[in-house]
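This entry is listed below:
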Amino acid sequence: MDARGLPEPHENASTVPPAPPMVATSRQRFALPSARTWIAGAQWLVTLATCAFLVVPVIMSIVAGLTVNYFRGIASGLTLRWLEEVWTQYHGSVFLSLEVAAATLAITLATGVPAGYALARSRTRVSRMIEELLVMPVALPGLASALALLVVYGGFSAFRMSAAFIVVGHVVFTLPFMVRPVAAICASSDLRTLEEGAASLGANFMQRFFTIVLPNARPGIVAGALAVLTLSIGEFNLTWMLHTPDTKTLPVGLADTYASLRIEVGSAYTILFFVMTMPLLVAMQWLGVDTSGANARSKRGVRARHHQDSQ
């Protein structure tokens, strides 16, 4: 009680003193980013700088192929003259590259798909040795592989002077990129189970291969096909060693244009090369192509762990 006989404010149990207003301090308003934010920002900065380092030269090369004079830049005006000149002189190389790539794809499909299936089904040491031998041309320089082909088959003049000689070299180089994705898919335990079920129903080997193996191995086949086409069109080292004046492919023609000491012509040829290969690269990215088979192996590992957990 106070002097006037009134109760003190704190004596009333039902009365709760109001909470003081929250006032944001200057440190709260202007808090520094966390260490994680700084690290993420640095990663983005490095990534963008790397992309610019790789992409800017390509863009400048494309622009050079569309300008009247490279040394004056865009100020000299834009033109399609160099593209027309390149197409007039090297359109034969374009069609030859497409023919070689198509022939290479057909041979790698006919040989690589059965080989990948056989290697996936075999667990012997010999099959592992064969797989390593198939990958060997990728580890060797293209010039070394070309020299080996010249030593063995160079004496057959008609074969040596034809585009078929280049196709053989491309098949040797690109076959591993067809075999490995197909083998990774065919090694799946699910595929083995489907085959065993079909065999129990009376399906022979050919029926199982065409109705079960090929449809289920389609992701690996598509991945290998796109990789083979892209590598065949862009292969230079091996092709340069094997080509003749009548069998110039796109990369060899590109080297010739740059040797002409006319930057605009070489850059225009780069545009043509870019137009042909970019759709394949986009398709590989869009379809999630994994030529090494790592994604397929990781998915099988996840399915195996899930099966073990369910048991």
In short: The chain has 14 helices and no strands.
